[in-house]
UniProtKB/TrEMBL annotation:
<feature type="coiled-coil region">
    <location>
        <begin position="199"/>
        <end position="229"/>
    </location>
</feature>
<feature type="domain" description="RING-type">
    <location>
        <begin position="259"/>
        <end position="298"/>
    </location>
</feature>
<dbReference type="GO" id="GO:0016567">
    <property type="term" value="P:protein ubiquitination"/>
</dbReference>
<feature type="domain" description="U-box">
    <location>
        <begin position="252"/>
        <end position="326"/>
    </location>
</feature>
<dbReference type="Pfam" id="PF25598">
    <property type="entry name" value="ARM_PUB"/>
</dbReference>
<dbReference type="GO" id="GO:0008270">
    <property type="term" value="F:zinc ion binding"/>
</dbReference>
<keyword id="KW-0175">Coiled coil</keyword>
<dbReference type="GO" id="GO:0007166">
    <property type="term" value="P:cell surface receptor signaling pathway"/>
</dbReference>
<dbReference type="InterPro" id="IPR016024">
    <property type="entry name" value="ARM-type_fold"/>
</dbReference>
<dbReference type="InterPro" id="IPR011989">
    <property type="entry name" value="ARM-like"/>
</dbReference>
<dbReference type="InterPro" id="IPR001841">
    <property type="entry name" value="Znf_RING"/>
</dbReference>
<dbReference type="GO" id="GO:0061630">
    <property type="term" value="F:ubiquitin protein ligase activity"/>
</dbReference>
<feature type="repeat" description="ARM">
    <location>
        <begin position="446"/>
        <end position="476"/>
    </location>
</feature>
<dbReference type="InterPro" id="IPR058678">
    <property type="entry name" value="ARM_PUB"/>
</dbReference>
<dbReference type="Pfam" id="PF04564">
    <property type="entry name" value="U-box"/>
</dbReference>
<dbReference type="InterPro" id="IPR052608">
    <property type="entry name" value="U-box_domain_protein"/>
</dbReference>
<dbReference type="InterPro" id="IPR013083">
    <property type="entry name" value="Znf_RING/FYVE/PHD"/>
</dbReference>
Length: 1028
């Protein structure tokens, strides 16, 4: 005989046995379902699917493929399926054995469980590796159909069943005292379950219920036992069977505790004359209605006196205590149960029972179980938290046990999920009272940031408790640093102010790495904090000084903090000491950067308010900074020059001190030719700063350095690859002394004007190609400064330079700037056009003058005659393109067609200038008015010029200036308005608007006389008005 059986054969036999078990399990389940009487529609549908499953199992069992006989996945799926079928079968067997009343009351939970089992069977079927089985496609299709059916089927209670269940529950709460109602309810139950409502049914149901009640009591399922007791009582109330005496005593122990009037357990029982007892308020209300008989025995009472029934009260209290203890024991037992429903019910009861301190000491051993509940979202975690909260409040031993069981981690995890229960934060609050436990809370990962986030919680109880927890953690430096990193700076500031120098040093170092936003910076605006931080600059510990410098540098980036630092009198002196005296280069640079930042963020009036800024702008300190800049390495020089730049922008005193130091100025210009681009750029910025707006302009060094400096600036403007350098060079050129002939000669010979021309012609077309705001700002600044430099060339008193402009045909680009440039660019463009148009107007006036005074004053006319000769000799004027246009100018006729003239009308500049008038909040509007006014200077062409302005919608634009412009702009607008008014009739809508605006201007003391003249011209006020 051959005993050599292969392993594969054994596996095949095992798997074959599993297939058979599953098939038999499906068959048994289908048979059990057939005679279910309640909710049989749902069960009938389920039976159909299980029968189909049985056939499917048999079909799959016939598949003999060696490749799958040993599949671990298939074997596991079969074992699970067998277990599920067996569980379903057992559940239905139990279901069928129950009494009808119990079956009805629990039908919903049973149906819910059956639906879960159906879905579990479907999931198990879907895990079978059918793809590896050699089965027909129709079998696979049938499998998918069964899976879908089981997944989608619903076990539902019929509406009639739901109604009956509701009636049963209501009758149970009323203790079943209404016989008529109990009889009707019994008939409905019998009808629903297919039985007859008679004494036999009641007796059978009572026997089953009593047996079930004993089983529940044996299993210590007190809640279920109580429910069954109430059902038994409900059946007895039908009076179809006699209630045994022992059952009356045992089944209805609280009957004598219930008030017959209010049907509630008595709290203040009183006896009346006949001996029956009632709740005091209920019987008193009965008597107050005029009744004098006993509600129970209907006996006429000789007296309405109420006597406290102390015996009943004592019995009730004893019963309540026993009932509470029973519930407590049941809850204690339930908390250790593996059944989720039992566990949740126990938690629900326990959270109420824990309100009584005597119970808290008895459940300390359940702390690990309660903490475990927090890890399972299917359980009543809220009740578990409340229980733990009570326990944490009970003793220090409980606190230790709660932490040991891992409650902190579970609570933090809940915070992560956005589940911040007041009891959860309350537990942390109780634990944080003890220093050792507070340390564990603070060290729990992300606990402090989450607590900080809870400060903004909508639940005030949560936010207040979180605040108290953080307060308890605030004695630890590491913890307050974590709080600050999360945006809560108040504890950080308090700890910093109270801590020793070593603690402050570490905290200052922590500030460097923190993310600080505008909302949290206000907590750092603390004078003591700022003072303590500044005092650390004098520390003898290098690490302390370094951390303090970097911390101050970070904080000074916020405007509100700048004010705090400036208010502390020690800030600037301490920084100056490091910046000017200390030998450490890195510290000096950091201190200088901070000083620069503080000055840059300050306001002009701050130099009159804060002593530190006054000292910084002193002659001693400005000279010292200049000296250090002159003798330092390039990197340090850059930082000190940047300080001087910001100081000069904000302080006229500092600006004049730098200007007056001739040696320093000479060194600045020498730096322009250095090989250090950063030094050159900041030196140029300082030169521009001390020159801008000063009557004397740029403080040039004496010759020959003077000539060299101007040529260098022109070279930078012409050839520098850096936009910022070229912009600054153009700005400095615009500030060169206006009355220096040598400057004009050097500029005339240089390529500066050509470079300006290229900037203007290119930049007004190419501004759109700059992608970042910084690049765009630099490009706009270059254009604005180039236009400022151009103004030197367009000055009517500088004919040689103006002649250079005439050769470039620059006006089309200038007109485009009026439409597309910034407000400042438009202002400077309008000023340049004013110069050009003014020169031409003077030239045309003298060239075409036909009427001379009889007795001219030769001396007074001499300067004008000299200008006339200069303008007449101009050639290749910038309007030469128009010279080729043979059409006549509507204002000047053919007079402005010459190559020697520039005309705003022929240059198409009138309409852009009028559009510029809308920028009433800048100087552009006033500059545009000055340009337009040049058209109105010659009285012979004035009517045509006025018509040209009106045709370009000029009156509306001028009225806008009169309404919203500056005082000086309004003054110029009034002049132009009056000139136009002399030669043009204002249309009706504009006439009404102009009247309203002019009348409003009468309130302006500086303009009212001129306004009154215009109104008189419009016949709106008389000649003898008080305004004259």
């Amino acid at each position: 005989m051959d005993f050599d059986i292969g392993i594969q054969d054994v596996a095949l036999a095992v798997q074959q046995e599993l297939w058979n078990k599953v098939a038999f399990g499906a068959m048994d389940l289908a048979n059990e379902i057939k005679d279910v009487t309640l909710e049989n529609d749902s069960f009938r549908e389920f039976s159909k699917y299980i029968s189909e499953l049985n056939l499917l199992i048999q079909a799959l069992n016939n598949c003999k493929i060696e490749a799958t006989t040993c599949s671990q996945g298939t074997r596991a799926a079969l074992e699970t399926l067998n277990s599920q079928l067996r569980n379903a079968c057992n559940l239905i067997k139990d279901y069928k054995c129950w009494s009808r009343l119990r079956l009805l009351l629990n039908s919903h939970s049973v149906l819910s469980r059956m639906q879960d089992i159906a879905k579990e069977i479907a999931e198990t079927l879907s895990s079978l590796q059918l793809a590896n089985l050699d089965v027909a496609l129709n079998v696979k299709s049938k499998t998918d159909q069964i899976i879908n059916n089981l997944r989608s089927m619903e076990f539902r209670s019929a509406a009639a069943t739901e109604t009956i269940v509701s009636d049963i529950e209501k009758s149970m709460t009323q203790n079943g005292r209404n016989r008529e109602h109990a009889i009707k309810l019994l008939q409905k139950i019998a009808e629903t379950t297919g039985a007859t409502a008679n004494a036999s049914l009641v007796r059978n149901e009572l026997a089953l219920l009593k047996q079930e009640k004993e089983e529940m009591e044996a299993q210590k399922k007190q809640a279920e036992a109580l429910q069954l007791s109430q059902l038994i009582q409900l059946l007895y109330s039908t009076e179809l069977v006699t209630t045994p005496r022992e059952d009356e005593i045992r089944m209805y122990p609280i009957d004598s505790f219930m008030c017959p009037l209010c049907d509630k357990m008595m709290t203040d029982p009183v006896a009346i004359a006949c001996g029956h007892s009632f709740e005091r308020n209920a019987i008193q209300e009965h008597f107050d209605k005029g009744q004098s008989t006993c509600p129970t025995c209907k006996q006429e009472l000789p007296t309405l006196e109420l006597t406290a029934n102390l015996s009943v009260r004592s019995s009730i209290e004893q019963w309540k205590q026993r009932d509470t203890e029973l519930k407590f024991q049941t809850a204690v037992s339930g908390i250790t149960s593996d059944d989720h429903s039992i566990l949740n019910e126990a938690l629900e009861d326990m959270q109420v029972l824990m309100e009584m301190p005597r119970h808290r000491a008895k459940v300390a051993g359940l702390i690990p179980n309660l903490v475990e509940v927090l890890k399972d979202t299917r359980l009543n975690t809220k009740a578990a938290l409340k229980c733990l909260h009570y326990l944490s409040n009970n003793s220090d031993e409980n606190k230790e046990a709660i932490v040991e069981a891992g409650a902190i981690h579970c609570i933090v995890k809940q915070f992560y999920k956005g589940e911040a229960e007041p009891d959860a934060v309350g537990i942390l609050l109780e634990l944080s009272v003890r220093e050792t436990l507070a340390e564990k809370i603070g060290n729990a990962k992300d606990c402090i940031p989450l607590l900080v986030s809870l400060l903004q919680n909508n639940n005030s109880d949560v936010s207040q408790k979180a605040q108290k927890v953080l307060q308890n953690l605030s004695s630890n430096t590491d913890f307050v640093v974590k709080m600050a990193e999360a945006g809560q700076f108040k504890p950080f500031v308090a700890r910093f102010n109270q801590g020793p120098r070593e603690t402050r040093c570490s905290m200052a170092a922590a500030v460097i790495k923190m993310q600080i936003n505008g909302n949290s910076i206000s907590d750092l605006e603390n004078k003591q904090f700022i003072h303590n931080l500044v005092q650390m600059l004098s520390s003898s510990t290098p690490a302390c000084v370094s951390a303090c410098l970097q911390s101050i540098k970070k904080l000074s980036a916020y405007p509100n903090m700048v004010k705090q630092f400036l208010e502390d009198p020690a800030t600037i002196p301490s920084l100056c000491l490091i910046s000017f005296v200390r030998p450490e280069p890195q510290w000096r640079q950091e201190a200088t950067k901070i000083l620069t930042s503080l000055v840059k963020s300050s306001q002009l009036y701050d130099f009159q308010t804060y002593q530190g800024l006054k000292e910084l702008e002193s002659q001693h300190n400005v000279s010292l900074v200049l000296q250090i800049a002159a003798t330092s390495d390039p990197q340090t020089k850059v930082h000190f020059l940047q300080l001087l730049v910001e100081l000069s922008y904000k302080s006229e005193t500092a600006r004049n001190l730098v200007r007056s130091d001739e040696d320093a100025v000479a060194r600045l210009f020498t730096s322009l030719n250095g090989e250090q681009p950063e030094v050159r750029q900041v030196a140029m910025r300082l030169i521009y700063c001390i020159s801008e707006g000063h009557p004397a302009g740029v403080p040039l060094p004496p010759s020959p350095a003077k000539e060299f400096a101007i040529k260098t600036l022109a070279a930078i403007l012409t050839s520098s690859p850096e936009i910022q350098e070229r912009s600054t060079a153009a700005g400095i050129i615009s500030q060169l002394p206006t009355d220096d002939i040598m400057v004009d000669e050097i500029l005339h010979k240089s390529e500066a004007l050509k470079a300006i021309h290229e900037v203007i012609c290119a930049m007004d077309d190419e501004l759109s190609r700059f992608k970042t705001p910084n690049d765009l700002s630099e490009a706009e600044s270059l254009l604005e400064n180039a236009l400022a430099a151009l103004l030197r060339y367009t000055e009517p008193t500088k004919p040689e330079l103006q002649r250079q402009v005439g050769k470039l045909e620059l006006y089309p680009s200038l007109v485009r700037v009026l439409s597309r440039g910034s407000s400042l660019a438009k202002e400077r463009t309008a000023m340049a056009l004013t110069h050009l148009s003014q020169s031409t107007t003077l030239s045309l006036s003298f060239a075409n003058a036909t009427i001379m005074p009889k007795h001219p004053n030769n001396n007074s006319l001499l300067p004008l005659l000299q200008l006339s000769r200069l303008f007449t000799n101009m050639s290749n004027w910038c309007c030469s393109a128009s010279a080729r246009d043979q059409s006549l100018c509507p204002v000047h006729g053919g007079a402005c067609s010459s190559r020697h003239t520039f005309c705003l009308v022929k240059a198409d500049a009138v309409r852009p200038l009028l559009q510029t008038l809308s920028e009433t909040q800048s100087g552009a509007a006033e500059a545009a008015l000055m340009a337009l006014d040049t058209l109105l200077m010659d009285h012979r062409t004035l009517p045509h010029a006025a018509a040209a302005i009106v045709e370009g919608q000029g009156m509306a634009a001028i009225l806008q200036v009169l309404e919203k412009g500056s005082s000086s702009a309004k003054d110029k607008a009034l002049d132009i308005f009056q000139k136009i008014l002399n030669h043009t009739q204002i249309t009706d809508p504009l006439s009404q608007r102009s009247e309203r605006i002019l009348i409003q201007l009468l309130q302006d003391d500086t303009l009212k006389k001129k306004t009154a003249l215009v109104l008189r011209q419009m016949n709106l006020i008389p000649d003898q008005s008080s305004y004259f």
